[in-house]
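wait is this the right file?? whatever heres the structure
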């Protein structure tokens, strides 16, 4: 935990999770890469209990760290290569309607 803030009926936490990509993740084979993911979580408290929860995860960094997406600033060829790999791997996990916008 990097931060914890309590204000009124809200509790906010900022976290960093660290690990190694040793198993398949959403169709992406294990890379063996070190992975770090950040999140910000917000809870609403009522009667001393957490009754609602919201979180924001930085999955862009996770996908970059496991090699599914190119790092920021990578050239167009790297972007196309990684995007193709990600779409191919997610095809069996996420329905196409969830990936491609309807024009």
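ok assuming it is, sequence goes like this
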């Amino acid at each position: 935990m990097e931060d914890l803030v309590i204000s009124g009926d809200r509790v906010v936490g900022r976290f960093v999770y660290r690990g190694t990509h040793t198993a398949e993740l959403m169709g992406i084979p294990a890379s063996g890469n070190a992975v770090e993911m950040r999140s910000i979580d917000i809870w609403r408290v009522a009667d001393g209990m957490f009754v609602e929860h919201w979180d924001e995860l930085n999955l862009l960094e996770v996908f970059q760290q496991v090699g599914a997406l190119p790092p920021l600033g990578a050239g167009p060829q790297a972007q196309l290569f990684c995007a193709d790999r990600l779409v191919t791997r997610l095809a069996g996990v996420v329905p196409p309607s969830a990936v491609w916008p309807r024009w």
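The radius of gyration is 17 Å. so i think its the right one actually
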